[in-house]
């Protein structure tokens, strides 16, 4: 199921802070519904910020040119929406109602990675965004990304990026040195 959101500002004089939000929800087979809601503009702003900060995968994110079947797509959708929770392969399999071993095999055949590797990939991407774009502590970043502790985040981050989260933040937030002026004096 995919969801598309379009926002249109209302033009009523009484309430200039409200917006009409149109949600289009499309199922796997093309069926869909459209919902219109009148909501406070500040809520729309918060939802937009959250949506922009949430990593969403596409088939292009997956390695190779392997076809992705419906079970794997359902698993990916569940993981994309729940990576910040403490989920594992067993939880993903339970939530999409398939056997854990079957999911693991199909996921690996279709993506070239394990379910755990995919979850870690999303979590690390989100950790990178939070480390570069916020002043949250590494402990808070770990919690927001679904890791049990800052130590677990640091181990996983170092395994993938070969540096610690603190080193990554430092490298991303370090101001660039001014360039010396060139030209005639």
From TrEMBL:
Q: Which PROSITE patterns does its entry note?
A: HTH_ARAC_FAMILY_1, HTH_ARAC_FAMILY_2
This protein's record includes keyword Transcription regulation: yes
The question of whether Transcription is a record keyword is answered with yes
Which ranges carry the HTH araC/xylS-type domain?
A: 73-171
A GO term, aspect molecular function: DNA-binding transcription factor activity
- Which Gene3D superfamilies does the protein's record reference? Homeodomain-like
User: What Pfam family is a match for this entry?
Assistant: HTH_18
Q: Which UniProt keywords apply?
A: DNA-binding, Transcription, Transcription regulation
The record's section on SMART domains has: HTH_ARAC
Q: What is this protein called?
A: AraC family transcriptional regulator
């Amino acid at each position: 199921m995919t969801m598309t959101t379009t926002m249109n500002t209302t033009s009523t004089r009484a309430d200039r802070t409200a917006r009409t939000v149109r949600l289009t929800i499309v199922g796997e087979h093309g069926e869909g519904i459209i919902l219109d809601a009148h909501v406070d503009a500040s809520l729309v702003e918060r939802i937009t910020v959250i949506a922009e900060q949430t990593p969403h995968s596409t088939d292009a994110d997956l390695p190779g040119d392997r076809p992705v079947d419906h079970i794997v797509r359902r698993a990916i959708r569940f993981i994309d929406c729940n990576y910040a929770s403490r989920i594992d392969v067993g939880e993903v399999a339970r939530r999409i109602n398939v056997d854990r071993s079957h999911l693991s095999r199909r996921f690996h055949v279709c993506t070239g990675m394990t379910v755990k590797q995919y979850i870690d990939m999303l979590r690390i991407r989100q950790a990178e965004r939070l480390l570069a774009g916020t002043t949250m502590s590494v402990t808070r970043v770990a919690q927001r990304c679904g890791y049990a502790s800052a130590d677990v985040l640091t181990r996983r981050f170092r395994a993938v990026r070969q540096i610690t989260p603190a080193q990554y933040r430092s490298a991303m937030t370090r101001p660039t040195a001014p360039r010396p002026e060139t030209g005639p004096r």
